[in-house]
């Protein structure tokens, strides 16, 4: 099989820290990366999720899923105040604007930092599975942050090869809670 340049290479059991925004979005990326011979550890870091009850639902769901599929899971600090400070001035922007860019960057930077500290070969994110996220921004930020921390960003567009549709099927199979907004209180208020 010939791989085209957008496909990620086989990992030969290299370690990947996978930033996870929610359990449903982690389903397909985990299976895909394992199928490519990567050792995957999840990293749940999402200070953007509001209210706290929503954050706790998503946390509970990813903990449950990680146990079912035997995936290591690291939990980042829930630092809502730091997130609010970073996005200050962008509260009224539409979803997909500067606030989202800042949010992607904050979460990817923390993922890269944790990956570097813990000897991972790569880091990547489930954000790329969503058809609503700006993949160019995710890839640009990942490369920039990877260079800053000296850990490689695994450029994976998980929505390809029906990844998003597969995540919906898999989340139904695992009977997962599936939210209807990204987690950002400002995005929820626009609905």
In short:
Helix content is 46%, strand content 13%. With 191 residues, the protein is α/β, with parallel strands linked by helices.
How would you describe the overall organization of this protein?
There is one protein chain. It contains 7 helices and 5 strands, in the order E-H-E-H-E-H-H-E-H-E-H-H. By secondary structure, it is of the alpha/beta class. The chain has one domain (14-189): Rossmann fold (3-Layer(aba) Sandwich), CATH 3.40.50. A 5-stranded parallel β-sheet has the order 3-2-1-4-5, sandwiched between helices. Helix 1 (23-35) packs across helix 6 and helix 4 (98-117) runs parallel beside helix 5. The chain is globular, with a radius of gyration of 16 Å. The termini are far apart.
SSE blueprint:
Blueprint (H helix, E strand, L loop, with lengths): L13 E7 L2 H13 L2 E7 L7 H17 L3 E4 L4 H7 L11 H20 L4 E4 L9 H15 L2 E2 L9 H11 L11 H5 L2
Parallel strand pairs: 1-2, 1-4, 2-3, 4-5
Helix pairs in contact: 1-6, 4-5
Which descriptors would you attach to this protein?
191 residues; five-stranded parallel sheet; alpha/beta; 7 helices; 13% strand; 5 strands; Rossmann fold; disordered N terminus
Sketch the topology as an H/E string, one letter per element: EHEHEHHEHEHH
> Uncertain segments of ≥5 residues (pLDDT<50)?
1-6
Radius of gyration: 16 Å
| Termini separation | 44 Å
């Amino acid at each position: 099989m010939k791989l085209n340049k957008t496909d990620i290479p086989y990992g030969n059991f290299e370690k990947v820290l996978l930033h996870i925004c929610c359990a449903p979005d982690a389903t397909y990326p985990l299976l895909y990366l394992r199928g490519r011979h990567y050792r995957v550890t999840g990293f749940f870091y999402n200070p953007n999720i509001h209210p706290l009850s929503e954050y706790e639902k998503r946390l509970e769901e990813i903990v449950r899923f990680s146990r079912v599929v035997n995936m290591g899971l690291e939990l980042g600090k829930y630092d809502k105040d730091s997130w609010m400070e970073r996005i200050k001035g962008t509260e009224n922007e539409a979803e997909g604007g500067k606030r989202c860019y800042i949010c992607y960057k904050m979460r990817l930077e923390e993922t890269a930092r944790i990956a570097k500290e813990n000897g991972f070969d790569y880091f990547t994110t489930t954000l790329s599975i969503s058809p609503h996220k700006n993949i160019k921004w995710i890839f640009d930020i990942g490369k920039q942050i990877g260079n800053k921390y000296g850990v490689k960003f695994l450029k994976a567009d998980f929505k390809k090869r029906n990844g998003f549709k597969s995540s919906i099927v898999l989340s139904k199979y695992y009977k997962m809670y599936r939210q209807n907004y990204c987690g950002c209180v400002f995005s929820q208020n626009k609905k």
